C-alpha cells in the first residue's frame, strides 16, 4: 500500500514539474508562404486583391495563444480584379489619404492579447492599428498543423477611412462604398 502511495506521489510530482517547466513556444510566420486577401464592396459590386505581410509571430502556451504581433505592408496593396489603367487608378486611390494614406502610414499592425481555445479554434482578442488609429478586434482563428486561417471583418470608418461611406455622406447613391471590408488571412508557420 505504501509503495502505491509513493508511486502516486512520485507520478504527481513528475507531472506537475513537467507542466511547471513547459516553456511557451513562439511560432514565427513564414512570410513568403503566408497570404492576406481583401474584399471591399460597394452598391454596384466589389473589388478584391492582396496585401503583404512583413513579419509576424505568436506565442502558444499549452492550449492558449498568449500573445502575438503581425505587421502588414500597406504600400503593397494590389487590386486583382482589374487590369491596366483602372487597376492603377484604384490602387493609387486606396493608397491615398482618401483611404489608407500609406505615405504617412506604411504599415498596419495586429497585436494579439489572448487566444482562448474553443471547439471551433481560437477566439482571439487583440488590437488592430490602421492609419494610426488603434481599435479592439475579436475573431476566430483556426489552426491545422503549421497553418492558421482567419476571416476578419473591419469597419474602415473607425480608422478614419470614410471616403464614399453612406454613414458619413448623403446622396452618394450608386457611389456608396460599404463601411466593412474583409481580410482572409492564411498564415504559415
Name its key features.
189 residues; Lipocalin; 8-stranded antiparallel barrel; 9 strands
Instruction: Provide the spatial order of strands within the biggest beta sheet.
Output: 2-3-4-5-6-7-8-9
**Radius of gyration using CA atoms only:** 22 Å
Q: In the CATH hierarchy, what is the class? A: Mainly Beta
Pattern of helices and strands: HEEEEHEEEEE
Kindly name the structural category. alpha+beta
Report mean pLDDT, rounded to a whole number: 91
Write the CATH architecture name: Beta Barrel
Count all strands and give the number: 9
CATH topology value:
Lipocalin
CA-to-CA gap between the ends? 49 Å
**Total number of helical segments?**
2
CATH homologous superfamily title = Lipid/polyisoprenoid-binding, YceI-like
Number of domains: 1
Helix percent reads 10-25%
What's the overall geometry?
Answer: elongated
Low-confidence stretches: 10-20
